[in-house]
Amino acid sequence: MSPKTVSPKLALNPADLKSAPLFDHLDELRKRLVFSVIFLVIGASIAFIYRVQLIDWVKGPLQYSQLYVDGKVQVVTYTLTEPLLLSLNLSLWAGLGLALPFILGQVWGFISPGLYPSERRWAIPFIVGAGLSFLGGAAFGYKLVLPTMVPFLVGFLAGAVTPILGLGTYIGTVTTFLVAFGLAFEMPILSIILTRIGIVNHGMLRKGWRFALVGIMIAAAVITPTPDPTNMMLVAVPLYVLYELSVLLSRAFRLPPPEEDESPALGL
Hints:
With 268 residues, the chain is mostly helical. It has helices at 14-18, 21-49, 51-58, 66-69, 82-111, 117-120, 123-154, 167-184, 187-196, 202-207, 209-223, 229-252, and strands at residues 74-76, 164-166. The protein has twelve helices and two strands. It has a two-stranded parallel sheet. The longest helix is centred in the middle third of the chain and has 32 residues, at 123-154. The relative contact order is 0.10. Residues 6-20 and 260-268 have low confidence and may be disordered.
């Protein structure tokens, strides 16, 4: 019997594989990721130069604690390498904030070829809006929530114990809190992306407002452990306003009906 031969139609040409759309997308994704990492490294390097000022800035909410002002609260490090590791960690997060507009530009550059021409004009508003939303959320948490939360937690057992705060734990908690608020303020931007890729629509978001409200109230209660309901509402109200804005933006950027071939007209 003669050996079986592979049909030319079934033979895989490496050149054809290389030019396949999937490989083109993967190559483009790799380039965008490389540029994003470069921007992050540059931002973190700049932030590392100002690491002392950054640490003082993160310790700012402690100034609202009378115990800290009176010198009854100590902020210490426990290991020889902790100051270096803290500086690197804080510089990385600050560098992410600096590089965020450029990283978002890479994200937009990756997804823009799949958009309609009328949608590509939203590149600058998308990048600027996402960057300002993140910074706005972090600023909201730093200026309005932490000044109440930190003194309450520091003085929770005032008189019974002597507070000694590990600098690493304190910075980690504050940084996580600020990043969480920054990401929460990205809710409207996320709703646009999820709407355009077909995962959600404004009808789903509108029907789920009750669940969203309950989730926001629970999150606000966890974020603000103070017994004062005013502080909880200070967090809950902006988050719910952002949810309603997400519903409106989801409607504005909704996908066109299948029978429409032309570019969708954006409108409420």
